[in-house]
């Protein structure tokens, strides 16, 4: 690697870890300090992402939204630095779309569910762009099979396939009446506003599963920046 590529890789790695750490701190703090109107604590089985950042509903909403906003912007910088070391057009495509998905996620933190329509647009476009980014990355892995890859770790293909599958399932649920929620916009309305609240809500579980899988996929990309110098 050239000295310029090494600097870009180092910056990408640092901003990537910082962004993921920001997301993690915001999530942990908000979930541990969460208490809804009835005094019920947070559960990943029946409370959605939006409710953690809902002012007047979540006590540490500002921490969660701040982590989501600044963490996503830090990850945008990771993607912008990393794509400059691209070793193929599909990496460039994946990381370019990744920037769009992370900006949409930043908007989810900037505009909480109290600003309903902007918040919902942010969530929708985050999932759309995230799925496209992972799909482009999968093409990159498949087209470079058997050849050295700068942006891949052992198990990247499996993790990417799982992540894309979960993202697509959640997107399809948002546009299909599956008997649990209405389709389209009402899907997101019921994801937040449904009462009485059941103990287990499958759409909420799928939302968190897709999000955590995506963050795990992002971590693998960030880690490639640390390992990249071993390939050159």
Summarize the structure in words:
With 232 residues, the protein is mainly α. It has eight helices and no strands. Residues 178-185 have low confidence and may be disordered.
Helix and strand layout, with pairings?
Blueprint lengths: L2 H30 L16 H4 L8 H22 L6 H22 L5 H28 L12 H19 L10 H9 L8 H26 L5
Helix pairs in contact: 1-3, 1-8, 3-4, 4-5, 5-6, 6-8
Features of the shown structure:
mainly alpha, globular
Bin the strand percentage: under 5%
How many helices? The count is 8
Shape assignment: globular
Q: What is the structural class? A: mainly alpha
Radius of gyration: 18 Å
Query: Percentage of helical residues?
Result: 55-70%
Task: Extract low-pLDDT stretches.
Answer: 178-185
The largest sheet is: none
Rounded mean pLDDT score: 86
Sketch the topology as an H/E string, one letter per element.
HHHHHHHH
Question: Termini distance?
Answer: 6 Å
Number of strands: 0
């Amino acid at each position: 690697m050239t000295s310029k590529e090494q600097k870009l890789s180092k910056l990408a790695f640092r901003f990537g870890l910082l962004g993921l750490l920001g997301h993690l701190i915001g999530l942990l703090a908000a979930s541990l300090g969460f208490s809804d109107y009835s005094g019920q604590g947070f559960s990943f089985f029946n409370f959605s992402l939006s409710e953690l950042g809902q002012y007047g509903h979540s006590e540490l909403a500002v921490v969660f939204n701040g982590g989501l906003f600044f963490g996503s912007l830090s990850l945008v910088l990771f993607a912008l630095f990393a794509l400059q070391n691209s070793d193929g057009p599909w990496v460039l495509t994946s990381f370019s779309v990744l920037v769009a998905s992370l900006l949409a996620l930043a908007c989810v933190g900037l505009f909480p569910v109290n600003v309903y329509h902007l918040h919902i647009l942010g969530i929708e476009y985050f999932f759309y762009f995230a799925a496209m980014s992972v799909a482009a990355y999968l093409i990159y892995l498949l087209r470079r099979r058997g050849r050295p890859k700068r942006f891949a770790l052992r198990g990247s293909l499996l993790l990417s396939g799982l992540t894309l599958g979960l993202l697509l399932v959640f997107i399809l649920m948002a546009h299909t009446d599956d008997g649990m929620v209405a389709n389209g916009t009402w899907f997101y309305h019921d994801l937040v506003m449904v009462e009485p609240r059941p103990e287990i809500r499958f759409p909420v579980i799928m939302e968190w599963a897709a999000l955590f899988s995506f963050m795990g996929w992002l971590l693998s990309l960030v880690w490639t920046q640390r390992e990249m110098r071993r390939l050159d």
